[in-house]
Glycosyltransferase family 1 protein (Candidatus Treponema excrementipullorum), 364 residues
Amino acid sequence: MYRILYVVSGAMVLGGTETMIMNYYRHIDRSKIQIDFVCYGNKEGAYDFEIISLGGKIFRLPSKKENLFKNLVGLYSICKRNNYKIIHAHMDAMNYFPLLVAKLAGVPIRICHCHSTFHLFKNKFHFYFKELLRKKVIKIATEYCACAKAAGDWFYDGNSYTLIRNAIDVKRFLHNSDVEASIRKQFHVNGKTVIGHVGNFNHPKNQIYLVQIFKEYIEINKDAVLVLIGDGPDRQKIEQEIKRNNLENFVLLMGNRANVNEIIQMFDIFILVSFFEGLPVVLIEAQAAGIPCLVSDTVTREARITNLVTFLSISDAPSLWAKTISSMVKTKKSDQSQAITQAGYNIEVEAEKLQIYYDLKIRE
C-alpha cells in the first residue's frame, strides 16, 4: 500500500470539491491506496471523522495569510517525514505553493487539479496574481488534471490533461417516492412547488439573483417555496435580499446538510445561477434524482448529461427565468442511472480509473 497527500484550500467542508474528493476516497481500494489530507486553518470539517475512520490522516497547517512561514515549512516537513511519492493539489492556481514545496521536498509526482473555469478573486491585483500563479504552476506540476474539458482548456494553455470527472454514488440519488413523501412531510411542504438550490453562499454562486427570480415566480405561483442548502460568507447578504423582497415565509435556509441526497428528492426543479463553475457535482446529483434543472449558460455544456437540463443567461430578466420554471416544474421524475453511468459519472466505475491512474504514475 502507498499513501497519497491531498491538499485542499481549507477544511474538508460540505463543498463541491470536497464532496467530489470524498466520493472517490470512499470507493478506491484503501488496502492498496490511502489518502492523507493537508487542510489549512484550525476549522474542523464535516468529513474529518469519516476520513479518520477510513484510515486517512489530517494535517492542519496555518493558512498563508495567518503564517506563511509555518504554512510552507510545515508542508515541507510533512512531505519529507512521510516520503510521499504523489501529492495531489485541489486549489486551482493556488496549487503553485504546495506543489513548489513538494518539488523542493523531493515528491516526484505532483498533480495539479483544476476544479473551476475562472479565478475567484477580490480585486484586480488578486486576479493578476492568480493568473501569474496559473502560468507558473504548469511548470511546477508533473501531471495536469481537470474536472471538465472547459476547466482544463482554460487552465492549462493548450497542454494535455487528464479528466477526473465529478462522479457520484448514483444509487444514493435515484428518485425514491417514499423518501420524497417523508422529506416533504418533515419540512411541511406537502402540496407546494419546491424550487431547490445547493451551493456555497459566495459570489460565484450568485444566490442574490436566485432570490430575485423566486420573487418573480411567487407572482405566478403563490404556493411555492425556495429551499437553499448551503452556507458561506454571503449568507447575510442573501438573508437581507430575502427580507427586502418580503420572502421570509417562502424561503427555507437549511444551512449545510449531510443528507442532501434525501432533501433534494422533494425538489420540483433545481436552479443554478452561477457566474462560473467547473463542473458542479450537485448538478450531476440532481440529474441522477430525475429533477429538471434550470442553470445559467456560464455552466459548461458538459454538465448536461440528460435532457433534464435547460440553460438560460443570467443577463436575462428574472421574469424569464420565472416563466421557464413554471413550464419545467411539471416534468415527471425518471430513472437516469444509465445515462449518468454512460457519461462517466458513476463513482463505482470512475474510482477504479483513478486508482489505475495513480498506479501507472507510480510505476513510471
